[in-house]
Every structure is written in C-alpha cells, then in structure tokens.
Automatic annotation (TrEMBL):
GO terms for cellular component: nucleus. Transcription factor. GO terms for molecular function: DNA binding. InterPro entries: Homeodomain-like_sf, Myb_dom, Myb_TF_plants, SANT/Myb. Keywords: DNA-binding, Nucleus, Repeat. It comes from the Eukaryota. It comes from Salvia divinorum. This is Transcription factor MYB60-like. Residues 9-61, 62-112 form the Myb-like domain.
DNA sequence: AAGCTCGACAACCGCGTAAGT
DNA sequence: TACTTACGCGGTTGTCGAGCT
C-alpha cells in the first residue's frame, strides 16, 4: 500500500475562495505551518481538496507576497530569466521572492508576451528579449531614487497582505495568543506563523501595510534581507544582488534538477542570503556565471544605451 | 441602459516526479 | 522493488470587471 488517497472528489467545492474559507485555512497554517496539505481538508473541515488549499496558500494567502504593479526592474528580470530558463516559472519565481510563479506566469502571458511581440515587430526578433529587458532595467535605474519602499505604493500590497490582515484582525482580537509569545509551553515553531501575520497589520492612518517578518522563517518564505533587497534597490545593491543571484543560479542548479520543493527554495534562499552577506562583507569579485554576466552586461549596457532606445510602450 | 468584447487573474487540470508503504 | 499517492509545476480555463458601442 502507498499513501492514503488525497481526497475523494465527491463533495469537493470548487471556484473562488470565500473570506471564511481563507480564515480557516490561514488559522490552520498558523497553527501547523504549511505542508501536509492532505491533512488540511480533513482537519479543518474545508470542502476543498488539498491541492486547492496548497494553491490558495502559495498563490494568495502566503504573507510577503507582492501583488500587481510589476516594476520595470521586475519586468526586466522576468524577461531575462524567461529567455534564459524558458517557461520555468517556479525557477523564475525564486529570483523574485515576493512573486508567485502563477503571478509571473500570468504577467508574462498577459503583458510581457504582448510587449515582446510588439517590440519584435519593430526590431530584430532574436534580440527582442534582450533589448526589452535592457529597457526595463533602464527605466528602473532612471527612477529618481531608484528605490522601491513599502508603503510608498501601498496598493501593491493591498490585495493580499491587507486583505488577510483584515481577515485576521477579527480573529486575533478574539485570540488570547500574542505574537511571538509562548504561553502554553509549546515550541516557538507553533507560533511563528502567527507572528508573521501580526506583523502584516496595515497602518490605516498612513494607509501603509507593515510587512515585517521575523528572520529565518521557514516553509518557503524569503527572509527579511531578501525583502529588503527587493524593496530597496540601488545600482550598487543591484550589482551585489546580481552577484548573489548568479551564485544562487550556480548553487541551485543541482537542487533544481532534483526538483524544487518549498524547502529547496528556502535552502536556496539561505544560500542566496549567505552569499549576499558575504559579498557585502568582503566586497569581493567572485567569478561570473553566464547569468550574472548577462545581467551585469545588460545593466551596464542600459546605462550607456537606455536613453537612446525608442519608447515602445 | 443594455449588450458585447477584451483584459486580468484566480483557480483548475493533467502530468511528471518524489516519497511512503 | 513495485505500487500507489502526494506534491509541485506548467498549461489552460473560467469568472469578473472595465471599457466600448
């Protein structure tokens, strides 16, 4: 005998998730953590299959997800990585920790593919990805401050973090637990998800969503430093980031060939972060991988040539 | 105002692989 | 080792809202 069946198809609800279902799922994950999806419907009573629960969590409810408003830099990353990796959305998503593979895939299909097509009609097809990505990077670096900060564009977070925070506010008010406390003698592991959500409560006065998370969060969550790396973007940091990415690209090759589950991504992320910290510390010049060289070349090229590129959008 | 079209995105489906028994 | 199922991924579909006629 193998594993018991995931869930019988009879009585399984389909279609959009309701806020009530979201609360149930989030509550469960706060208590048990993501994983063991098979147990979710049976434990919570949700009339959803385990697959649907996992998808809902990873694509929508998971804290730290940034939604909508892809930045030019993100666009450039996606275009580059798509050209490099093909439609390996999960792999591409590892370079954009705040974006889900589904989000990236949708954005590619609805926006970038069209842009590329449009662009290809006006230039060499073989070079379209390259140039379009360069342009995107260029727009990013031309940005006055070259910084993207939480709160300055609060709408970016509104759809996921704020929604779930709202859902949880009521739930937490009725809960005796406090964030990151250990009242019942259980391990911190039992409460860490709770802590994550607490730190996403929106600031209604400033219309900002606080999205701080503790370090070393497991189960597929990027660490704070990664978020920082995405929110605060400048040219210097960009190069460091690219170095890190390139290192991750190399280091993750083996693991990605084996398959990329959430724990694999965490390990990858840790490696990314560790490498990034190392780069910061010694400011060394590690050997460049193909990806790194390409990205750095583009980054440099855009400085020289971005201003000359004709607007295509 | 009603109907139609299109875009965006959430969710589903099917398949390959990993993992449990 | 073989069998069975969970999990993760990529492709596709369904739904909803905005804009247009």
């Amino acid at each position: 005998m193998g594993r018991p069946p995931c869930c019988d198809k009879v009585g399984i609800k389909k279609g959009p998730w309701t806020p009530e279902e979201d609360i149930i799922l989030v509550s469960y994950i706060q208590e048990h953590g993501p994983g063991n999806w098979r147990a979710v419907p049976t434990t919570t009573g949700l009339l959803r299959c385990s697959k649907s629960c996992r998808l809902r969590w990873t694509n929508y409810l998971r804290p730290g997800i940034k939604r909508g408003n892809f930045t030019p830099h993100e666009e450039g990353m996606i275009i580059h990585l798509q050209a490099l990796l093909g439609n390996k959305w999960a792999a591409i998503a590892t370079y954009l920790p705040q974006r889900t593979d589904n989000d990236i895939k949708n954005y590619w299909n609805t926006h970038l593919k069209k842009k590329l097509k449009k662009f290809q009609s006006g230039s060499e097809a073989a070079d379209a990805n390259h140039q379009l990505a360069s342009r995107s990077y260029g727009e990013s670096s031309k940005n006055e401050s070259s910084c993207i900060r939480i709160g300055e564009n609060s709408s970016v977070y509104a759809s996921s973090a704020e929604n779930i925070s709202r859902l949880l506010e009521g739930w937490m008010r009725s809960s005796p637990l406090q964030p990151n406390t250990n009242l019942n003698g259980t391990s911190n592991h039992d409460n860490k998800y709770y802590g994550d959500f607490v730190k996403m409560i929106p600031n209604h006065e400033s219309n900002e969503v606080q999205c701080y998370r503790p370090q070393n969060v497991e189960h597929g969550m990027p660490c704070d430093h990664d978020l920082e790396g995405m929110f605060v973007f400048d040219h210097h940091h960009h190069h460091q980031r690219l170095n890190s990415m390139a290192a991750c690209d190399k280091s993750s090759c083996d693991s990605s060939q084996k398959g990329s589950d959430s724990s694999g991504l965490i390990e990858q992320d840790k490696v990314c972060f560790e490498h990034e910290e190392k780069v910061k510390m010694d400011n060394a010049n590690p050997p460049l991988s193909f990806l790194e060289k390409w990205l750095l070349d583009e980054s440099a090229a855009q400085v020289e040539g971005a201003m000359e590129l004709p607007p295509i959008f």
